[in-house]
Structures are given as structure tokens and as C-alpha cells.
Sequence to fold (227 residues):
Amino acid sequence: GNSVTQMEGPVTLSEEAFLTINCTYTATGYPSLFWYVQYPGEGLQLLLKATKADDKGSNKGFEATYRKETTSFHLEKGSVQVSDSAVYFCALTNTGGFKTIFGAGTRLFVKA
Amino acid sequence: DAGVIQSPRHEVTEMGQEVTLRCKPISGHDYLFWYRQTMMRGLELLIYFNNNVPIDDSGMPEDRFSAKMPNASFSTLKIQPSEPRDSAVYFCASSLGGGAYTEAFFGQGTRLTVV
Fold:
């Protein structure tokens, strides 16, 4: 079946540090891949997405590249800010289906 | 647009009571999803609707859970009777089209505590 595995948190970084949150997936067919972010007390919101192999999604300084050969979609940011502190979810939606499968989430703390 | 609106934001109820959670999707969106978030199980899809019709309710944990969408602008998730293990944050989300490329817009969630 379809599944998403992401690195356990929490991840604690100092401001301006480099961020990587690993995400790997298992899916039949050709899924679309997403990163959602959840700020405290709020719902999830889309951060970026990629719909086919080798696509790079980017938004607000975050990037992730759809790697079919390694079934990965790692999230990166070159310089994090305190305001990036949140929980990040990797997710996939398989073609022909409407169910989005979410990873467990990775909590990020950024210290000033 | 105000986004997806859920009510109440917080609900505390006693075991055995009926609980009703409410959701107003974004106007024009034709898909509506109910999710449950817990520390143990993460984010689980409970049920989703397309054009007010329930399409897949395989994620609904038990018969105590039911969901309705009487019109395009309103949906409810009901738990009767409620149990302590139902304590979680329940999210409603909507999207325009439900395909693999589609972004889901989430409400702020309802934090349910059953004591």
C-alpha cells in the first residue's frame, strides 16, 4: 500500500542554520508529493508540491525535489528563521485516487 | 474568502454524550474531507465527500461515527456515544477537484476532549 515515512523530530536548529527533513515514500503508480506545514493552533497549509519525477517544488525559501529513483522528497531550506518553527508533514496522493496519505510529521524548533 | 471554517474550536464533553462537529468549506469547492489527528496515529482520513455525496468512509473508526453533508456549504461529523479514546483534533478540509494534483485547504480544527 501507499505510505510516507519522515524523520522523527523534534529538530532543533539555530537561526540561519541549514534545514533538511527527510521523507521517503512507498506507492504504486506515479503519486504527487506534497509538503504541508502546521503552525501552532492552526490547520495544515500547503507549503510546496511536485507532481512528477525530477520536479522541484519551492516556496518561501523551502525546496524539495521529487526523486523517483530513491523514492524521496526531502525538504530543505538554506537559512531557517524563528518563524519557521512548526510541524512539517510530507504527503502523497496517488494518481486515480483522492486519498492523501500523510507522514507522522516532524516538529521544527528554531532558536534565535 | 474566509477559508474553511470549523466550529467549535474546542469541545469538552463527558463520556457517553453526543458530539457534533461542524464545517463550512470554501465556497465552490466540490470535495470535503474529515481528518482526525492524534499523537499516536498521526493524521487519518475518516471520510470524504464529492458534491455532497459520501465517497469513501472506510476510515471511519466505528459505527459511533457518522458524517453528513446536507448541502455544498455545510458538513457535520457526529460521535454518539463519545468515548475518551475519541479525544483528538478533528480537521475538515476542502478542495476544488480531488485529483492527485489538488491542494487541500484545512480548517483550524476542533480539539475534542472526552472525559
About this structure: The mean pLDDT of chain B is 93. DSSP finds no helices and eleven strands in chain B. Chain B touches chain A through 24 residues (CB under 8 Å). Residues 60 and 68 of chain B are 13 Å apart (CA to CA).
